[in-house]
Amino acid sequence: MTERMTPQQRLVVAIAVLGSFVAFLDGTVVNVALPAIERELGGGLSTQQWAVDAYLVTLGALILVAGAASDAYGRLLILRIGLIGFGIASIAVAVAPTIELLIAARAVQGLAGAFLVPSSLALITSTMDDPVRSRAIGLWTALTTGAMIVGPLVGGVIVDVSSWRFVFVINVVPIGVALWLLTRLTARDHRRPDARIDWWGAVMCTLGLGLFVFALIELPVATDPAPLWVALAVGAALFAGFIWRQHVTASPLLPLSLFRNRTFASGNVATFFIYAALSLNGFVVAVYLQQGAGLSATMAGLASLPTTILSIALSSRFGALSGRMGPRLFMSVGPVVMAAGCLLLLTVGATFDYWWQVLPGMIVLGLGLAITVSPLTAGILGAVDAGRSGIGSAVNNAVARVAGLLAVASLAAITGGALDLGGFHRACLVAGVLLLMGAAVSAVGVRNPPRTPARGAADQPAVP
Q1: Average pLDDT of the chain?
Q2: Stated pTM of the model
């Protein structure tokens, strides 16, 4: 008989979804607003990349700090800090008078967003066991992934009927609801008195990624590339130093011992390839359909609606199936289906026809996304014990954000410096190859966990 969630567990899922929703939404909603931002504040392709990557740099680097803080100081405290900070930063983005201030505010927004995702998902994993946990993660995945995909649609409508600035103000409503729901939750945080945060590691990771991405974005348009090659080398050295520090420090942000688990390690490698492809595909589709195919922002957003519908409708079902059958099959097949969707976009031609050139790819992509994401999330977190669910979630989300960060930063190199039809085709091809690599890693490295009987609702632990 299927075990049902308790009212408090449903409340946990609602809070987790709302907390992660705004972070995922802002990761993609900006894509469709980029042409409007460029028209008002100026800048070219590199400026558009920075509007996306300034957010992803701080999100990807500091999500590890947030994950460690979530385990150390409590999921609920970290979640509240993230919600309040994200709301303030979103308003700062909306009122930014220059592109430089907008990029700076996006970086602060990413910092706050780093506190939302690991604490939200850890709230689920630490209060539920399978099969309830897998269904909850499936629901969380459906709605938060839906936020990533519906972002261009919401952003497009807002850009066309009012201003791109209101794209960022909409965060205030779900943030307010989440803060209110937190007052209704009976669970309480447990804080470790001996907690330590590796702040030097955080600085090395953030600066390393920042310099590396700065060089990747600016090199294709630089008149004097020598300083950028230096920045690239320094960034890579700092990030390598960060990895070394995690091996020797007593309180690592990235516990390398987690990667001794084969499923956790392989799942995160697969995550890197899959989310790099999703970020690359989402960026080029949203921008090319406006600047290349001549669609309005709303129509460009509507292009991804079939993907959104399929993902929301099916992710929870595949999450439940994964809980019973294990994640390996879904993590191996799903990316192949997504790759087929990306490759179908190669049919886009100079004479544009959405129904025959874009819609089939969006449908196939949505099906593959539904098959993949929930089992991937549940499989990776299922490989981590409940006491380390915060850092386990943070590592996986950091891998996903850094993958997207590097994919967008490499856009000029992939497209040849211009997002014309040829550049669009190259980006779709690269996305398809990345997804096939993710499928291969999953098939070889992921192992299904042994089946254990689920605990009853009365046996659920308090929030660590």
Answers
A1: 82
A2: 0.74
